[in-house]
C-alpha cells in the first residue's frame, strides 16, 4: 500500500469509528484538543516562527505577498486565542448527526427513519492561514467526519505542530473513551483507539493532493478553500464531489421602482466594504428609466460610488448618462466605457461593471448568463417583481433590498462556516455543519418479508405509509419519548 | 454552436422558465401531456411496432435478450395505461419546490429563508423501457427541471413518438399559460413559450451522451438508470454530479441472539424474491455460535434457502457446519466452498456468499470493506447491538430485523422513485422527487448594509439571529400567513 492510500484508508478507518460516537464523546475530544493546543502554545508559536523566518526573505524579494505573510502569522494580537475559542464555539453547536428528518410507518412494527449521519472522509485544501487546521479539525470531529488537510506550504511547520497536538489529544481521549464503551470486545477497543489517532491528518505537497484526488474509494468530499484557480483545478481533477466556489460574480439590479437612498446605501455596501470578498457586487444592472430622469437618479448613485473610490465601467447608455452629468467633469478617470469581458470579470477591487437593462426579465437573463450562481440582489419597491427575480435567478442567494455582502455563514447565523458552495447539489450558499452530513435510512422491523406486502386483491398486506410526525432536529431517542407520551 | 451544445443550452433556457412556474401551471402541463399521449396512443404503438420489428430478428439470432424485448414492448397488457396513470400519480404528489426548510431573522426587517428550488437540467440515461420517457418527463416537470433523455437504441422510435407528444403538449399549454402571466412583456412571453417546448428533449446515440457529459455549463445532474457498467462509465466520464448506484451488494448479518424463524423468513425473502434486483442480499454473515449449536440453527437456515433453489458459497467454518448436517447428503451441489471474490460479487441470481463472523463489529467491518453502501441488515433481539450496527455500517439503508428488499422508493412511501443512490452527498438510497431539488437562500430586507452590523462595542448593530419556526413542508406564503395569525 503506497503512502497516500495508507493515509486515505486510515482516514476511512477513523471515520468508521467517528460516526459511532455520541455528542458527549465528540465534545470530550474537542475539549481535549482545546487543552492540548493551549498547552502546546509555545511549541506551536516556535514552529510558526520557523515558517515566518523562511517566508520573510521571500516577502523581501517580492516572491510572497505581505498579505499572505500576515495571514501566516499566528502571533498577531488575539489570533491564537481566537483559534482556541473557535474550538469551544464549535463544541457548543448542536450536533448535526442523528437527527430524524423524515419518518414513515410502513406497517405496524415496520418503521422507516431518515437519520442524519456524517459524510465520511473530507479532504480540505486551504492556503496560508495555519489556524484553519484547528478550525477544520473541530468542524470535522463535531460532525463525525475524518479529515485530511493540506495547508499552504509556507505554513507547513505550524500546521504540523497544530496537528501533532490534535493527534495527541485524540490518542489520550480515545483510550479513555473506549475503556468505558459497553458491548464491544478488547480487540475492537484497541483498534478503535488506534484508528481515532488518524482522525485528522495533514499532507504537505501539491503532489500529495494530486494523489489523494484519486482516492475516491476512501475520500467522500473535497473542500478547497482558496483561489479560483485552485478550486477550478480541483473540480477538473477528481471524481470525488467538490464543495466550493471558483468565482463570486455577484450582481445587484436597481429596478425602476427602487428608491435612490436605499440604492446608494446597499450598492455602496455591496461594492466597497470588502472588494476582495466573493460576496461583493461586481456588476450593477440599472433600469434604463434611471439614466435620464429629472431626479438624476443614476448620476447620484454613481456619485456615491465614485466618492468611495469606485471606478465604473459602463455600457453606452450608462456612460452617456454620466457624461452628461456634473460628476463626469471631476471624475473622468473613474467613469469608463466597458467591454464585453467586464461582465464576466470578478474584479475583486474597487471596479464595478454597469449595464443598462429594460426589465427584471432582462436582468434575470443577464445574471443567469454571466453570473457565478453565488448571490444576486434586486432593489425594488415592487413585491411581484422581487418575487419574479428571486424565482428566476439561479443562484445560491437571491436578495431583495439587501446587500450581497450578507451572504456569509456567520451573518446567516449558522455558527460556523465550512465554505461557500455554488454547486447545484448537496449544499449551496454558505455551508454550515449541515453540509458535512448526509443521511441513512434506518428500517426497524420485527421479521417482515417484502413478499407479504402488495395489493389486497392478491392476498397481500397493503403498506400503511402513515407519516410519523417529526419535530425539527429531533433525534430518534427524542422522537421515541415524544411518541410514548402521545400514546 | 454545435448540435449538442444547442440541445443543452436550450434545456437550460427551458429550466430557467420551468423554475418560475407555480404548482398549478406545472399541473396543467402534466395533464396536457397525459391527454396528448392518450390521443397519440395508436401512433405511439405503431412506432413501438417498428422498434419491435427491428428487434425481433436480433432476438432470434441471439443478439438481443428476450427479456429486453419484453421490456421494449409497450403493447403488453396494461402497459400503456400504467404509463398514463403514472403521469396522473406524479401530478398528484406534493410540489417539492418552494418549501421553506429554515428561516432566520437576522434583524427586524431582514429575514433569511432557505427555499427549495429545482436543480435545473437533468440528463437521464436508461435502457430499453420506452415508457420511462413519460415517467421522467413527468418527474422533471413536477419538480421544475428540464430533462434530456436517452433511452436504449432498440426503443428509439417509441421514445421519439412519446417525446413528440410531450413537446406538442408543452407548446400548447405554454402559449395559454404565458398569455395570462402578469407583469412580463410580450417579447418575454414569446421567449418563454419557445423555451418551454425544449423542456423534454431526447437524444439517440451513445456518442451524443459522450458529448453531453461535457456540457457541465448547462447540465446539473446526470441520472443513469441501467447496468453497473453504464453507471460506472458515466461516473468516470463526467464532472457533472451523478445520481445513481453501480452496484447493489447487500449483506444480512444473523447475530447471536437472532431467532431462527425470523431469520428464515427474512433471509429467504431478501435472497429469493427477485435475485436480479439491486436490493437483494448477496452475502449472509452468520454468527459463529450458530454453526454447531444443538438447535442446528445454521443448517436449518441453510435448508430454507436451499429449498428455494439457492446455492450457498461458504467459508470454511460454515461449510464444515453444513457438511456435518443432514442437508449436505441431498444437496451437495448447492453447498460449495467460497473464494475471496465471492464476497465482492453481486451475483444477481440464486447464489449467496456465506461468511462466519464472531461479533457485530466483525460484521460491520466486513460490510464496510466489501459492501456497496446500498442496504445492509442485522437480525438480532439485542437492541444495543442493532444500534451499534446501524451506526457503524456506512450504507444508504441499515435495517434491523427486516428484509433488504424493502429498500425501494415505493415501499418507503415516496410515491415516485427517481433512482437509487449510493452517493455520500446530495441524495442517498431510494430517491424521490426531493432528489431533484436543491435550495436557494432568499434574503428579504429593506435597505440594510452589512457594514452596519457587528459588535455593539464598535457602535454596530448586533445580529438578532432569531430562528423563525417553520412547519414541515411549508411554503413562504403559508409561513407568512401563519406568522400573521400569531401576531
TrEMBL record, chains A, B:
Pathway(s): Amino-acid biosynthesis; L-proline biosynthesis; L-glutamate 5-semialdehyde from L-glutamate: step 2/2
Broad EC category: oxidoreductase
Assigned EC number: 1.2.1.41
One GO BP annotation of this record: amino acid biosynthetic process
Single annotated GO MF: glutamate-5-semialdehyde dehydrogenase activity
Catalytic activity: L-glutamate 5-semialdehyde + phosphate + NADP(+) = L-glutamyl 5-phosphate + NADPH + H(+)
InterPro entries in UniProt: Ald_DH/histidinol_DH, Ald_DH_C, Ald_DH_N, G-glutamylP_reductase_CS, GPR_dom
Keywords noted in UniProt: Amino-acid biosynthesis, NADP, Oxidoreductase, Proline biosynthesis
Family to which this protein belongs: Belongs to the gamma-glutamyl phosphate reductase family.
Function: Catalyzes the NADPH dependent reduction of L-gamma-glutamyl 5-phosphate into L-glutamate 5-semialdehyde and phosphate. The product spontaneously undergoes cyclization to form 1-pyrroline-5-carboxylate.
Protein name per its UniProtKB record: glutamate-5-semialdehyde dehydrogenase
Organism name: Dissophora globulifera
Amino acid at each position: 500500500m503506497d503512502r497516500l492510500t495508507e493515509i486515505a484508508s486510515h482516514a476511512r478507518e477513523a471515520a468508521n469509528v467517528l460516526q459511532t460516537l455520541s455528542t458527549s464523546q465528540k465534545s470530550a475530544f474537542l475539549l481535549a484538543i482545546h487543552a492540548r493546543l493551549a498547552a502546546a502554545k509555545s511549541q506551536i508559536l516556535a514552529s510558526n516562527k520557523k515558517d515566518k523566518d523562511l517566508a520573510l526573505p521571500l516577502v523581501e524579494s517580492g516572491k510572497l505577498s505581505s498579505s499572505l505573510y500576515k495571514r501566516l502569522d499566528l502571533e498577531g494580537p488575539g489570533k491564537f486565542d481566537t483559534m482556541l475559542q473557535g474550538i469551544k464555539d464549535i463544541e457548543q453547536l448542536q450536533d448535526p448527526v442523528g437527527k430524524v428528518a423524515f419518518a414513515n410507518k410502513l406497517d405496524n412494527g415496520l418503521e422507516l427513519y431518515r437519520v442524519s449521519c456524517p459524510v465520511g472522509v473530507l479532504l480540505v485544501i486551504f492556503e496560508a492561514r495555519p489556524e484553519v487546521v484547528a478550525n477544520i479539525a473541530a468542524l470535522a470531529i463535531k460532525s463525525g467526519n475524518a479529515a485530511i488537510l493540506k495547508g499552504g506550504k509556507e505554513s507547513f511547520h505550524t500546521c504540523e505542530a497544530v496537528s501533532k497536538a490534535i493527534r495527541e489529544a485524540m490518542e489520550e481521549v480515545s483510550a479513555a473513551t473506549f475503556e468505558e464503551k459497553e458491548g464491544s470486545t478488547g480487540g475492537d477497543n484497541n483498534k478503535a483507539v488506534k484508528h481515532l489517532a488518524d482522525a485528522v491528518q495533514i499532507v504537505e505537497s501539491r503532489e500529495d493532493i494530486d494523489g489523494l484526488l484519486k482516492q475516491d474509494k476512501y475520500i467522500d468530499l473535497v473542500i478547497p478553500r482558496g483561489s479560483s484557480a485552485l478550486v477550478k483545478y480541483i473540480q477538473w481533477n477528481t471524481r470525488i464531489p467538490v464543495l466550493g466556489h471558483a468565482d463570486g460574480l455577484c450582481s445587484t439590479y436597481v429596478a425602476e421602482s427602487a428608491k435612490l437612498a436605499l440604492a446608494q446605501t446597499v450598492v455602496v455596501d455591496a461594492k466597497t466594504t470588502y472588494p476582495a470578498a466573493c460576496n461583493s457586487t461586481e456588476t450593477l444592472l440599472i433600469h434604463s428609466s434611471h439614466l435620464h430622469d429629472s431626479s438624476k437618479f443614476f448620476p447620484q448613485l454613481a456619485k456615491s460610488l465614485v466618492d468611495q473610490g469606485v471606478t465604473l465601467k459602463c455600457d453606452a447608455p450608462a456612460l452617456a448618462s454620466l457624461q452628461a452629468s456634473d460628476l463626469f467633469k471631476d471624475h473622468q478617470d473613474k467613469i469608463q466605457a466597458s467591454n464585453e469581458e467586464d461582465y464576466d470579470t470578478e474584479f475583486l477591487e474597487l471596479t464595478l461593471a454597469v449595464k443598462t437593462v429594460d426589465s427584471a426579465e432582462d436582468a434575470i437573463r443577464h445574471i443567469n448568463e454571466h453570473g457565478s450562481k453565488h448571490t444576486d440582489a434586486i432593489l425594488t419597491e415592487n413585491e411581484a417583481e422581487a418575487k419574479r427575480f428571486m424565482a428566476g435567478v439561479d443562484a445560491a442567494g437571491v436578495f431583495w433590498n439587501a446587500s450581497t455582502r450578507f451572504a456569509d455563514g456567520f451573518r446567516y447565523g449558522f455558527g460556523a462556516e465550512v465554505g461557500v458552495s455554488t454547486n447545484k447539489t448537496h449544499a449551496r450558499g454558505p455551508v454550515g455543519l449541515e453540509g458535512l452530513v448526509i443521511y441513512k435510512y434506518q428500517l426497524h422491523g420485527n421479521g417482515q418479508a417484502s413478499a407479504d406486502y402488495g395489493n389486497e386483491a392478491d392476498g397481500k398486506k397493503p403498506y400503511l405509509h402513515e407519516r410519523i410526525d417529526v419535530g425539527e432536529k429531533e433525534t430518534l431517542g427524542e422522537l421515541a419519548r415524544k411518541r410514548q407520551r402521545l400514546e
